[in-house]
């Protein structure tokens, strides 16, 4: 286990070097957050009765989403992994007594965690100080907050497990650009990154809420904002765990298959 | 102990003619060409041996190394290293081996080298006292000192290369694969690295398999060489044996003053210039001292040298002989 901890640590400290990128990210996410909230506020004024979430829930959902963007965004990939396949330095990674899937899983997780660590504090700090209707609020009770934290960890793992499929395709295509674009647009849409899932029309929503994408940011953000409460929370955590296990098993099988025909690029 | 038996590996490479038209055609139908990287490769290497693995570019050297490291799965054939099949028991196999790929890096780009070393320590679960001892010895031998506290991205190629070698040895591997370890090194570093590998083999009994294009590496390090060409092992023998085979011929270079001397029947002219003469001869027919005497009787000799074939020429001759 300590090997993975060490790997996590080194990836984390390598990521800490990019402070300017973090500042840029914070500014972007602020602008983006405001735009989203303004847009939802406009919808709300048009017809409050058709709104499945309260304005305060929306504000919390969006700010937490922006603060933890690096944990949940599916378009966000670990470039070290992509380049290790395309440049051939994967040779060294395979020459270590480690499971490659676990290694990459750990590395990609560390990369997301370090990026989020550098960004989330300033965003949340300001979001709590904003005037209504932009202000972010705390969950109603401690229980909800702790469920949110558990759900966040699960969502992060589901997102990484999903991205492992993207990395595996690079063994075959050498460029992840196309796969990434299609996969991330679909995944982000169905995960509630563009509009929260409660806004989906009835009939479609019930199906989408069962997909693996619903086990991503949808779950922690809705638990935090209070859009999911009571026994639904436990059902949601169960769904996340189910999809995490399923994706990891399938991902490991896919990678094992890819590795038997691996070609080390560049001699 | 390493044994390879009839290892074959082929790659499928997309073939494409030049030009935009052909590039467009390749979008719809592709032609593939099978490249036989390894063709029934067999050899045995004993514990503690140091072997030079040579061959021209694209001969299959690196592919063999990658098969032995468990990275590539061959199409057919058997390979046993310390009783294990590398690609089947990759994780336990790689614990016992160290590998340097001269063209790639195992060090993390953005963090100090020492951090990468510590990661490797944790991956191989090296005891921290032992690690410190190995690290101290290695950094001293390869003259690394403060360099290991610098981020990899600010190192020169030679500095990085020495760090790569240290990184591959931190877990005291029984077998060391070196794939072009002296690439890009300056003369001083090359000598340091060679000396270091030599000591390692002598003292720790580490088995070393080395691929290189630098024949001085081979001359300095290995007694046994394996020659591979077009995926086949063409020759397996000792360097001295080879030298004997080729060194029936000696080259005599004379700088002289005066008229051009006449040559003995046993001398073959290579280059005849005013003031300098290069000939080859067979020492079994004409002894070295007779050859020198023959020339110096006729002209005033300013400088004279007798050269046996260099490893470089020998390999060139071998490549020629095997048409690879």
Write the layout of secondary structure elements.
The complex is a heterodimer of chains A (267) and B (324).
Chain A: H1 2-15, H2 19-46, H3 55-67, H4 69-72, H5 79-87, H6 90-94, H7 100-129, H8 142-173, H9 177-191, H10 204-208, H11 218-225, H12 231-260
Helix pairs in contact in A: 1-7, 2-3, 2-7, 3-7, 3-11, 7-8, 8-11, 8-12
Chain B: E1 2-15, H1 20-25, E2 31-45, E3 50-54, H2 61-68, E4 76-81, H3 90-94, E5 97-101, H4 113-123, H5 128-141, H6 157-169, E6 175-179, H7 187-204, E7 207-211, H8 215-221, E8 224-229, E9 232-238, H9 239-246, E10 250-257, E11 267-273, E12 276-281, H10 288-296, E13 300-307, H11 311-321
Structural notes for this entry:
The complex is a heterodimer of chains A (267) and B (324). Helices cover 72% and strands 0% of the residues of chain A. Chain A has 267 residues and is mainly alpha-helical. In chain A, α8 (142-173) runs antiparallel to α11 and α8 (142-173) packs parallel to α12. The longest helix of chain A has 32 residues, at 142-173. Chain A is globular. Chain B is built from eleven helices and 13 strands. Chain B has helices at residues 20-25, 61-68, 90-94, 113-123, 128-141, 157-169, 187-204, 215-221, 239-246, 288-296, 311-321; strands at residues 2-15, 31-45, 50-54, 76-81, 97-101, 175-179, 207-211, 224-229, 232-238, 250-257, 267-273, 276-281, 300-307. In chain B, the strands form three sheets. In chain B, strands 5-6-7-3-8-9 form a six-stranded mixed beta sheet, with helices on both faces. In chain B, a hairpin with a 2-residue loop joins β8 (224-229) and β9 (232-238). Chain B is globular, with a radius of gyration of 25 Å. Chain B starts with a strand and ends with a helix. The model of chain B has no long low-confidence stretch (mean pLDDT 87). The interface between A and B is medium-sized, with 27 and 32 residues.
């Amino acid at each position: 286990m300590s090997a993975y901890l060490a790997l996590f640590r080194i990836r984390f400290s390598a990521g800490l070097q990019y402070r300017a990128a973090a500042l840029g990210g914070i500014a972007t996410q602020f602008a983006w957050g405001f735009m989203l909230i303004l847009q939802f506020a406009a919808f709300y004024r048009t017809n409050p009765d058709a709104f499945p979430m309260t304005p305060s829930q929306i504000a919390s959902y969006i700010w937490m989403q922006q603060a933890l963007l690096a944990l949940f965004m599916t378009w966000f990939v670990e470039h070290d992994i992509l380049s290790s396949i395309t440049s051939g330095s994967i040779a060294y990674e395979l020459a270590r007594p480690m499971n490659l899937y676990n290694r990459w899983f750990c590395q990609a997780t560390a990369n997301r965690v370090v990026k989020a660590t550098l960004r989330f504090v300033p965003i949340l700090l300001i979001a709590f100080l904003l005037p209504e209707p932009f202000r972010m609020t705390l969950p109603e009770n401690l229980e909800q907050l702790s469920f949110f934290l558990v759900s966040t960890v699960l969502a992060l793992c589901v997102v990484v497990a999903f991205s492992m499929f993207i990395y595996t395709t690079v063994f075959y295509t050498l460029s992840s650009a196309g796969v990434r674009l299609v996969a991330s647009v679909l995944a982000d849409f169905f995960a509630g990154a563009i509009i929260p899932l409660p806004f989906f029309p009835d009939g479609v929503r019930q199906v989408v809420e069962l997909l693996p994408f619903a086990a991503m940011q949808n779950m922690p953000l809705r638990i935090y904002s209070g859009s999911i409460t009571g026994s639904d929370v436990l059902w949601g955590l169960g769904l996340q765990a189910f999809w995490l296990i399923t994706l990891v098993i399938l991902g490991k099988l896919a990678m094992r298959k890819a590795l038997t025909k691996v070609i080390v690029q560049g001699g | 102990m390493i044994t390879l038996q009839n290892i074959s590996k082929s790659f499928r490479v997309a073939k494409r003619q030049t030009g935009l038209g052909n590039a467009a055609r390749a979008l719809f139908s592709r032609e593939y060409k099978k490249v036989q990287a390894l063709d029934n490769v067999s050899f045995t290497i004993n514990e503690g041996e140091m072997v030079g693995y040579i061959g021209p570019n694209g001969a299959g050297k690196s592919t063999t190394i990658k098969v032995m490291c468990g990275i590539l799965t061959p199409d057919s054939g058997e390979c046993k290293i310390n009783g294990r099949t590398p690609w089947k028991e990759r994780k336990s196999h790689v614990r016992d081996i160290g590998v340097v790929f001269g063209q790639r890096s195992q060090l993390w780009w953005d963090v100090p080298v020492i951090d990468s070393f510590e990661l490797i320590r944790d991956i191989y679960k090296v005891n921290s006292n032992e690690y410190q001892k190995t690290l101290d010895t290695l950094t001293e031998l390869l003259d690394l000192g403060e360099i290991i506290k610098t981020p990899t991205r600010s190192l020169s190629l030679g500095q990085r290369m020495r760090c790569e070698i240290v990184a591959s040895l931190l877990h005291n591997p029984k077998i060391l694969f070196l794939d072009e370890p002296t690439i890009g090194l300056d003369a001083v570093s090359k000598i340091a690295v060679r000396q270091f590998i030599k000591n390692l083999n002598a003292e720790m009994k580490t088995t070393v398999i080395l691929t290189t294009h630098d024949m001085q590496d081979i001359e300095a390090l290995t007694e046994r060489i394996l020659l591979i060409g077009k995926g086949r092992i063409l020759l397996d023998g000792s360097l001295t044996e080879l030298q004997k085979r080729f060194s029936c011929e000696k080259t005599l270079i004379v700088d002289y003053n005066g008229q051009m001397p006449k040559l003995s029947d046993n001398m073959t002219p290579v280059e005849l210039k005013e003031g300098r003469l290069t000939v080859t001869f067979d020492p079994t027919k004409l002894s070295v001292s007779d050859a020198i005497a023959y020339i110096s009787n006729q002209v005033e000799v300013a400088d004279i040298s007798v050269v046996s074939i260099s490893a470089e020429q020998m390999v060139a001759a071998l490549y020629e002989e095997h048409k690879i």
